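Budget justification note: compute hours in this period were largely spent on complex prediction jobs such as the one shown. Inputs:
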Amino acid sequence: MRKCSLEKINEIFAAIAKNAALYLPVDRTDGSAAYKKWEEGTVWSNALNTVRSPKDFFFPQTEDLMRFKTKGKTVQLEDIRTEAEAFVVFGVRACDVKSFDILDRVFLTEPADSFYANRRNHGVIVSLACTRPVETCFCKTFGIDPSAPAGDISAWKTESDIFFEANTEKGKALLHTLSELTEECDDGAVAEQKAKINAVMEKLPLKDLSTKGFGGGKTAELFDAPEWDELSSACLGCGTCTFVCPTCQCYDIKDFNTGNGVIRFRCWDSCMYSDFTKMAHGNNRLTQKERFRQRFMHKLVYYPENNDGLFSCVGCGRCLAKCPISMNIVKVMKKIGGNKGE
Amino acid sequence: MQVNEYKPLIVAFCCNWCSYAGADLAGNNRLAYPADVKIIRVPCSCRVNPTFILRAFQRGADGVIICGCHPGDCHYTSGNYYTRRRMAALFSMLDFLGIEKERTRLEWVSAAEGAKFAATMNDFVQTVASLGENKRLEDLRCKK
Amino acid sequence: MQKITREQLIAKASELLSNGTVSQVLGWGKGEFDYDVTPTLFSSAEELENGFVFNDFCGANFSKYLVSKAAKADGKLLVFLKPCDTYSFNQLLTEHRFDREKVYAVGIPCEGMADISKVKAISGDGIASINADGDNLVVTTLYEDAPITIATKDVLAERCINCKSKKHVAYDELMGEEGEVLASNRFDEVARLEAMTADERFAFWQNELSRCIRCNACRDACPACTCEKCVFDNPNSGVENKSPANEFEEKLFHIIRAYHVAGRCTDCGECSRVCPQNIPLHLLNRKFIKDINEFYGEYQAGEEVDSRAPLVNYTTEDLEPGEVFDRGDNNA
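Corresponding output:
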């Protein structure tokens, strides 16, 4: 484990930015935080979380896949893939780090998604332990420890210092480049910090939320639960929950006619939208109730069924904070499944 | 020596009954106006949906002008009165977003006003040319 | 604190349920915390007792739900309407979007609703509880030992600071005292932007709109947006796009969204309330309202049922689009 005084944090950032694009959360004028590329003078935000999750770095909202040009009867295909630039994402919370595992299983399972893999190979994640979890946090439900975030490098912040521990080869290489700015230390201060965080975790209102009653094999039991009607009743069908979610990974592939060619691109899609997975015969989910159910069944039943019991939610709380009508996965889990009446 | 002079692309929505005929008359009378004006014939000026205008800008237009019958002369009695209100609101909104207000215009050109049509187009092309390329409502994908 | 209490509302709803006037109640359902209420349908006094809340965070405008819920209700649907909601109610009636006979509207007074992000900015995050106490909110957090007292007027939502009316323009029954149409400063921010140079305005909107993630919440929450199939959801429209692929797409969506409700927008402010990226979308709508007022005379959408919206109306003496700017310069 290595440490560095917070006074020197900008030197650390400068050193990282010398070799790679560095992204970190910064405060915006509207009161929330967002990832931004670091440059001299950028101030690192203390915010617990960004509105948009860091999944954007590996799976951007819009991404061009290829271009076509037609000339007479020939179609010319242009491969626009390029090697991604090396980049570092700094200050990713434990929940968001976990979301990359969930996305990896989707995009890196053969046949792997080369766009995603390209970015994943060139990105280094420096995580950051939480210091002030809030009422909407429920990462513990999914077995995530906010005091011990994964990532290529884990970091802990105290009042005066920042501590780093490399977990992977990529992380070790990056930390090595910072060896002049950091010094070797024991993990006493970090252990203290962990204890502090865990004490706060005990105070969180959602600490007892459990996943019992959900998971693979529950489709028959939950699919026709009468509660879906009531739960989905107020849903507006907007895509806020899916677009702020770090684990939602559905996308649509579309063609854009530029007038002198075609750009084939993909963009995030939302199961809340009326034209989601629309096909030649029409839509397979005609009502908002069915679309709403799809989102939660996917996260809590279908995904774990196909992925060794891993749930496709990390408890980051973004949907709790942002849903226009305050309907969310916590309310769903408390209404159906094993938390009933709790 | 060849000079690459910037020529703006102008989209003109002309109503079938007056302005399009006015353009025709300009042609018959051999009145010159720049070839960079691309005319799109619409049944009535009120057929022009705001999306048409924005899409014209997206697809490379540097200026968009809508031409219809003079107020009171609409083939459909009142179509151009609606156009007048709609375009007043839309142009004002574009200006509110910081998009140069000179890039959009509404003009009344009757079937007898071939000369006015040519003059209007000449003036509009000049105005837009002095602004340069449309950068604030462009879609870079369409320029590749 | 709101002048009307949860208990009064429950009593009223229970009475109307038991005497058969209504079969269902559209109200605010209790959330996990003290501020995350969900619009909920109640059908018995017991359900109301267990789940109904009314506090300073009940901002959602229920009018739009009438389009889908009133048609489905067996009997009449009871809906509680704040003054601003009644304008949307009338506007939807004008557009024949729901059956008036299926709805029993109860007007309730509103003292303005709080914005949770403003509360958090003062109290710090990690909210444990929020309780109203007179003109204050008493907030306890996970991190502070002592409760924090915040004046409710300091954390009001933007739309409530600039409240346009405390008067109900539609109801079957009114609870509490009727208020008045207020002289608000709601166009000040629009005027401030108008006074800027075009470059400054462009930079302002570029910065705001670049945050858009195209979740469509502004559209989906809007009581004026009730098209069966939105042009932006229709793959055959040529403008359907699920993501803000570039700056043009952002502007296209937001201009057209605001334009489509111009003259019909009652300025209820739902668009800005629901925006996850805090884009001041209401300014686009207010610009249209301000322009319409100045060009064609004062008009408040929803003030009267069956009034003709300014953009589907005309006079032979209307000003020309070119004259708009000549006027504008004098104003600025």
